Amino acid sequence: MVYFDVRFAAKFMGVSSATIRNWIKTGVLGAHPHNSGKIPILEIYALQSKIKSGEIDRLNQRANKSASKKTITPNEYIPKELVGLVQQIIDICDDAELPVSGAMFITAIAYLIYSNEIALSDNDAKNQIRMSFRRSGIKKLILKWEDACQSEKQYATIAAISQAFAGQSVPKEQDFLGAIYQAMLQEGNKSQKGSYFTPINVVQTMISSQYQPGMRFLDPCCGTGQFLVCCARQKGCNYNDLYGIDIDQISAYIASINLLLAFPDADFEPNIYHCNTLTDIDLDSFLDEYIWMKNAFDLIATNPPWGAALNRQELSKLYPEVQSGESFSYFVVKCRDFLKEGGRLSLVLPESIINIKVHKDIRKYILGNYQIASINELGAIFTDVFTNVYRMDLTRTATGKDTENASYAKLNKIFELTNYSFMSICNNEANELIDKFFAQEYITLKDNADWALGIVTGNNQKYLSNTMKAGFEPIYRGKDIMPMRLGGAAQYIEFKPLSFQQVAPEWKYRAKEKLIYRFISDKLVFAYDNQGVLTLNSANICIPNIAGMDMCTISSIFNSKTYNHLFRALFNTHKVLKSNLEVLPIPIDFLGSETKIKEIIKAVLKGDEDTDAIDEYLMDYFKLSPKEKEMIWDMRI
Ligand SMILES: C[S@@+](CC[C@H](N)C(=O)[O-])C[C@H]1O[C@@H](n2cnc3c(N)ncnc32)[C@H](O)[C@@H]1O
Fold this sequence. Notes:
By secondary structure, this protein is an alpha+beta fold. The protein contains 28 helices and 23 strands. The strands form seven sheets. It has a seven-stranded mixed β-sheet with strand order 7-6-5-8-9-11-10, sandwiched between helices. Strands 13-22-19-20 form a four-stranded antiparallel β-sheet, with helices on one face.
């Protein structure tokens, strides 16, 4: 028999302790004959159903209280039908005032009772409750975890949670404990550890496409073990081949439980380790207890933490290759040493890995140390995380052989030019298209232009005016920049360079001819200016200096749909950076005064042709296929 104490019974029923005592006194609630402070749980439930049926007029308080609470339940992680149960269990733990560790321990026991792994029995002689275990693997685990919670009150909570499970059907393959744990973690805490667990369908495709029986598998930051459990469900998998590590003790316990539940007919101790994979495992030291993990795994699949708060100082010494301080990058480096040569690393990563400059360190590392098998966009798969997510499959190359990634060798030049951007690898079509742009002999704006940022006044209210005043002149913002021309300026300024926070040398603004381009933009918008106008910092300046190339030609081709398509394929950015513009190829065929492109541009500027004529010419020039042309015509810029 399981008992509630008075305080907990009061919380559970949504009444005061005095009311409970009164109910015991008046016989509404039957208490333990020798101890009126203990109430059999069955009595509580009996009373509850009397209240529900209207026999006794109480309880709604508690129901209302539950309804008013809001827990963040990971929708992508658990079916809708179970969200209510998750919420109910969290409410019970809240009412019992359990810390997350205690609440998870209690919930795990209730879940194991529900899964027929643990049975509770009453030891009447000692007036105690005993747990008996079906498997010693579970027993060892639970005893190890038990320290946190041992009071009667917690057994009452187990009973309350067990009651919540009654009549529910939680699918066996569901990481129910993981879902509860995630919901219990506060958002802040979660992002600090980077603990968004991966939706099961993503895990399934990653594992089923790569796992073979007999492979030794590792998830080096396994969370509650979904990648491991997914392997466990593959035909022929042996639990001895599955290994997981996590820095979070509760996650590691849940992963062990999940693995044991995935092999219901075996009794074993799962290979789940609780430690910091990045700092506690030294694969270069023969004295390290984990040294056997060096080059030991055929497959690693995981969703490593992103942007987790880490000790950068310590890590920079251990992982000099990683300059960004990004947590997933350390894992990419560490995993190489866990893998056998030819072993596979499969990762869920944020979109920023593809082309954001700060991650060029890890892209370069990947190109030198792994073969890229594939990169695929998965979309925004995490609730409340707006980032697009990519799956990246990498094969470990030979030790010490600083390989240039063979299959992408032809793109080496572009990698160097683009901060090792992976945009071109992400899809083969883009890859082929990019190749065509770089197939002709070309020059770029790198070392062939002067550049300037627009003015940062430091106090726009003070320095800018909406009307023209004496001594003032127009100043242009990004949104005033139109393809080929300046729109109307909406603001004016008195040019007092010494007063401004950031200002380029005046000659750059006053140049006889210059190009002005929008800085915050996902497309290229270039205007030609020969009036020496000023710009604010949302509009930057480029003064090309390429013999035989006039500025109108450069701005016309950069404004074209064709170049915008290339720009997106290479960078996919919302900021037009000088370093990106310096990559764009300007074919040397376009140099000189008598070229076809210039003839077309002249006609467009005169109004005899529209800008489509420029795109038609460019697409033919770069030998784009009908499909590529169609894509470009269809793009919205
Ligand atoms: C994004 S979660 C992914 C969990 C699991 N791999 C999955 O995909 O569902 C990241 C996990 O990494 C763990 N973690 C973070 N830093 C770690 C470290 N230095 N060593 C081991 N685990 C770490 C967190 O505790 C968390 O469980």
